[in-house]
Each structure stands twice: as structure tokens, then as C-alpha cells.
From TrEMBL:
Domain ABC transmembrane type-1: 19-317
Predominant location: membrane
Entry's localization field: Cell membrane
Keyword entries, A-Z: ATP-binding, Membrane, Nucleotide-binding, Transmembrane, Transmembrane helix, Transport
Any Pfam family matching the protein: ABC_membrane_2
Stored Gene3D superfamilies: ABC transporter type 1, transmembrane domain, P-loop containing nucleotide triphosphate hydrolases
GO molecular function per UniProt: ABC-type transporter activity; ATP binding; ATP hydrolysis activity
CDD domains: ABCD_peroxisomal_ALDP
Cellular component annotations (GO), alphabetically ordered: plasma membrane
Protein known as: ATP-binding cassette domain-containing protein
Membrane-crossing segments per the record: 15-35, 55-79, 127-153, 173-193, 260-278
Superkingdom, taxonomy of origin: Bacteria
Membrane topology summary: Multi-pass membrane protein
Length: 557
């Protein structure tokens, strides 16, 4: 996930922004030091009541504030700029892994991981922005650590501890106190905050599940309304939200305890340096200037040493995002390693199945050692009872079904189209929906009109440039006709149809298949259907028994 920094695209801008962020951060550290020195000068001014240098004193304040705030704002801008570039690159990588080898379909079917959409949209942002902020912040912290260590060592002087008439002098005592106190706070925070990562992941899962359930209602609104299922869906959503509520409250209670502990320790740590230095001030060993500078320096040094504590929440958010992205990456890799029938491309024009076996997820054999050669112009219909493996066979031919083995040889450069019972049509213009997955410019207007006419959808020829959610606007029967129009438009060499006319009346089904045979005379067609009326549009049959057995047959009319 860090290959972004070695990518040649945009490398000059990337590193210029990074250098700019680092320089701006270091300038902000210098501005912080100027402000610390100004605080010491303020204390000295109050003690001396000298107004002669008041103008230069105010100017020093303005310079310190401007130096700190302007450089901090620039550093934040540069970090955000690099962060969105990194997020764009990371989103592209994660998305490609998710879509490669049809891993997204396998994840959805097996529920291997939850909410991949959230991981792509949100966790990539968390990963890139938090890691970058932490890295730049760590560099800033190192500079502050060095700067304020020198200041505290110089201004703090020795720390004298006494008891029972004995005294102990510790050179650089305030420096060593800062280290000891920061170490104590870090250990306490690490122990108290160890549950944060788990609670964060659980909240993200609950939020994503609730959002997905609400989106599912929207996507199936009409079917739910016809079943009067609104109240039931409301109960389901409420249960999902109660999980969100529980996760949020658990994290809130944890944060309340953790923030209270951190706040108490911060308040105590802020006052101890002054209390330790007051005896020396009362003995006139140090002045008000040195007292204020040292106290402020110890506070800044302690904050630097407590960097892990102050960024604990951010670190755990980064760890949670990193874990979820790694899980998505591993799941995509697992999908790529699945043992499935080998799909190859051959120079021949025939579609060949060699010793193809298909099983169900429980490893029960549905089709055993199927070998067949399907030549251009042949049309096969696959028949069998429900559960016999008809749809599983087509998924196997499409490379989606990992439960099986054997070899599938497609003709070289063959254009393959699949028409499932409910085809996918992206939102957008009708032209885009028909051309999918090609660009709409790949076809001419006359091609679209001819395809729609052949699919009994002539009235829609005037709606080619109309934008709509076609999956929601059209009826199931119209969507199946539109799928046939897509097939007529693409003119595939191989066409798979899985119950592609299940929502059509007998007359429309007959017309579409007759047109299909006429428009694609040289194409290889494999249909799955339980309609005997479609037999006459095919040349061969494949009957599946569901126990591994199968039989071929020639169809004669």
C-alpha cells in the first residue's frame, strides 16, 4: 500500500508537497519556540513593569503567532493535498484488486468479508490521511523533542531533592522528569486504551450494516411495498440501528474514561514542573523569565514525549483501517487462488469442454467429467430439474463458479455475452446501458435502433439519450427484452442465456428466440430454460440428472 511513493506518475508534485509540508512543520516548531521565549519575556516584563520595550514586545508576539499559524496552515494544506492523491491511488489499487478475477462476486456470494464498499470509500481515506498526518506529526515531534530538550536542559538547571536532612542534586533534573513522566503516562495510556481498535472496528461494521440495510430497502422498494413489508423492514432497520447504538455507546464510554484519564494526567503533568521549580525561584536562583520558559519548555517536551498518547486514537483508527484493507486485499488474493476449471483461449473456432466437473458448495458433484465440442452455428439447450446444476454450469463457463475442475477452451478473441434472468444495466443513458460494458460511442445510432426494434422495444429508440435508473424504471419483462437488445447490438460469438425469458409471455419469447437465430446464425448459443417450447430453436440438448450424470441429444423437429 506504500508503493504510491515509488509511482512515477505525479512524482515531482508529490515530493515537492512532501518537502513543503516538512519545511512548514519545522517552521511551526520554530514559531512555537519563539512563543515560549515570548512567554518568558512576558513574565519578566510583568516583574520589572518596564514599558519602554512594549512595542517590540508586541511585535515579537505577532511574529511568533504568524510564524506558527501560517506555517501550520500550509503544512495542513500540503498534507491534505498529498493525502487525497494517495487516497486516489490507493482507491484505484484496492478497487482493481476487488474487481480482478471477479473477486467481488465471490466475496458477495460467500460473505467472506463485510461491506467492501465501505472499505474502499472510507478505509482508504482513513489509511492515507491518518498515516500521512502521523508521519509528518512524528517528524515535527522529533524536532520539538530536540528543541525543547536543549531549552529545558539549559534553563531548568539542576533539580535538588531533599529528605531527612539529605539532599540529592540531579543535573538536568527537569529534563529527566519530563522523560519519566511521559513514560509513565504512555504506559498507563497503552494499558487503558488497548480495547479501542476492536471497538472502532465493531462500530464501523455496525454503521455499514445499517447503511446497507437501508440501501437494500431503497433498491427493492416496489417489491417490499407490494408485500406491505414496510413495518417488517422498519423493525429490521431498528434492530440494525440498535447494534449501531450499542457500538457507539461502548466506544463513547471508553472514550469518556480514556479522555478523563488523559486529561487528569495532562493537568497534573502541566503543574508539576512549576511546583518543582518554585523552591529555586523563592531562593532567587532563577528569575521569572527562566521559570516561565522552563515550565513551558517542560510542558512542550512532555507533550513531545507523550506523542503516542496524544495520537493514540488516531493510531488505533489507522490500525483499524489498515486491518480492514488488508482483509479485503487478502480476500481478493484468495479469490484469485481458488481452484476452478481452467479457462483458456485456443486458435480454433470451436467451444470445447474437456473433463469438466461441477459441484455445489458442499462438494456434491452435480456434473461429472463433461466433455463436449460446440461448433459455430450450434445452439444447445441445457435441461434438468431444479438444483441439477444448470445455472452452476453457466456460472462455471463464465468463470464465476469455483467448485469444480476441468478445462474450458474458448475460441481466440471470441466475444462472449451472458444474459442472466435479470441482467445488469448501469444507471445513465439508455445508450450507455445497452452498450455496457463497451463505451456507447462503439456503436452507431442505427445499430441501437435496429437492436431495440429486433427486441420488441422500438418505442425506446427515441429515449437513447435519456438518463434513468433503468433497473427501476422498467418491468422485469422489459428488462429481459432490453437484454436481448444488448445481445443483438453486440453480436457475440458465444451467447449464454440463463432463464433469460422467464418473465416474458410465450409469444414474446418465441419472437425473440426466432429473431436471435436469424440475427446470430454463426454464433454459439447455450440456453438454460425449463420451457419445452424453446427446444425447437436449438440444435442440441444437454440433460442433467443432478448426481453427476448427463446425456447429450440431437433435437429434430
Amino acid at each position: 500500500m506504500t508503493e504510491f511513493w515509488f509511482s512515477r506518475h505525479g512524482i515531482l508534485r508529490r515530493y515537492l508537497l512532501l518537502i513543503g509540508a516538512i519545511i512548514a512543520t519545522q517552521i511551526s516548531v520554530y514559531g512555537s519556540l519563539l512563543f515560549t521565549r515570548w512567554q518568558g519575556a512576558l513574565a519578566q516584563l510583568l516583574v520589572s513593569a518596564d514599558s519602554n520595550n512594549f512595542g517590540s514586545f508586541v511585535l515579537a508576539f505577532v511574529i511568533a503567532v504568524c510564524t506558527t499559524e501560517v506555517s501550520s496552515a500550509l503544512a495542513l494544506l500540503f498534507i491534505k493535498w498529498i493525502g487525497i492523491d494517495w487516497r486516489q491511488w490507493l482507491t484505484n489499487v484496492v478497487m482493481r484488486n476487488w474487481l480482478r478475477n471477479d473477486a467481488f462476486a465471490w466475496m458477495e456470494r460467500t460473505r467472506r468479508i463485510d461491506n467492501p464498499d465501505q472499505r474502499i470509500s472510507e478505509d482508504t481515506d482513513q489509511f492515507a490521511t491518518t498515516l500521512l498526518s502521523l508521519a509528518i506529526g512524528f517528524l515535527k515531534n522529533i524536532s520539538m523533542l530536540w528543541t525543547y530538550s536543549l531549552l529545558v536542559w539549559e534553563k531548568g538547571g539542576p533539580l535538588v531533592l531533599g529528605w531527612g536532612g539529605q539532599t540529592l542534586t540531579i543535573q538536568g533534573g527537569m529534563f529527566w522528569f519530563s522523560i519519566a513522566w511521559a513514560s509513565f503516562v504512555t504506559i498507563v495510556a497503552a494499558f487503558a486504551g488497548r480495547a479501542f481498535k476492536t471497538l472502532t472496528i465493531r462500530q464501523q461494521q455496525a454503521e455499514a450494516n445499517f447503511r446497507f440495510a437501508a440501501a437494500d430497502i431503497r433498491n427493492n422498494a416496489e417489491a417490499i411495498a407490494l408485500m406491505h413489508g414496510g413495518p417488517r423492514e422498519g423493525e429490521t432497520l431498528l434492530r440494525k440501528f440498535l447494534s449501531v447504538r450499542t457500538a457507539v455507546l461502548r466506544l463513547a464510554f471508553f472514550n469518556a474514561r480514556f479522555d478523563m484519564l488523559r486529561g487528569v494526567l495532562a493537568m497534573i503533568g502541566a503543574q508539576i514542573p512549576t511546583l518543582l521549580l518554585l523552591p529555586r525561584y523563592f531562593r532567587h536562583e532563577i528569575g521569572a523569565n527562566a521559570l516561565m520558559q522552563t515550565a513551558a519548555g517542560v510542558a512542550a517536551l512532555t507533550v513531545s514525549l507523550q506523542w503516542i498518547v496524544d495520537n493514540y486514537t488516531t493510531i488505533q483508527q489507522f490500525r483499524a483501517a489498515s486491518t480492514r484493507l488488508t482483509e479485503l486485499k487478502d480476500a481478493a488474493a484468495e479469490a484469485g487462488r481458488l481452484h476452478r476449471p481452467a479457462i483458456e483461449r485456443a486458435a480454433d473456432s470451436e467451444f470445447i469442454l474437456h473433463d469438466l466437473s461441477v459441484a455445489d458448495p458442499e462438494n456434491k458433484t452435480l456434473i461429472g467429467n463433461l466433455s463436449a465440442t460446440i461448433r459455430p452455428g450450434e445452439r444447445w439447450i441445457v435441461r434438468g430439474s431444479p438444483g441439477s446444476g444448470k445455472s452452476s454450469l453457466l456460472r462455471t463457463l463464465g468463470g464465476l463458479w469455483p467448485y469444480g475442475n476441468g478445462t474450458i477452451l474458448f475460441p481466440h478473441d471470441a466475444n462472449v455475452i451472458s444474459l442472466p434472468q435479470l441482467a445488469y444495466f448501469p444507471d445513465g443513458t439508455l445508450r450507455d446501458a445497452l452498450a455496457y460494458p463497451q463505451e456507447s460511442s462503439h456503436f452507431k445510432d442505427a445499430d441501437y435502433a435496429a437492436a431495440l426494434s429486433a427486441a420488441l422495444m422500438t418505442p425506446f429508440s427515441s429515449a437513447l439519450d435519456e438518463t434513468a435508473r433503468w433497473r427501476k424504471r422498467l418491468s422485469p419483462g422489459q428488462l429481459q427484452k432490453l437484454a436481448f437488445a444488448r445481445a443483438f447490438l453486440h453480436k457475440p460469438d458465444i451467447l449464454f442465456l440463463d432463464e433469460a425469458t422467464a418473465s416474458l409471455d410465450g409469444r414474446s419469447e418465441e419472437v425473440l428466440y426466432r429473431t436471435l437465430v436469424a440475427h446470430l446464425p454463426a454464433s454459439i448459443i447455450v440456453s438454460v430454460s425449463h420451457h419445452p417450447s424453446l427446444d425447437r430453436f436449438h440444435t442440441d440438448s444437454l440433460d442433467l440428472a443432478g448426481d453427476g450424470a448427463w446425456t447429450f441429444g440431437k433435437i429434430t423437429l
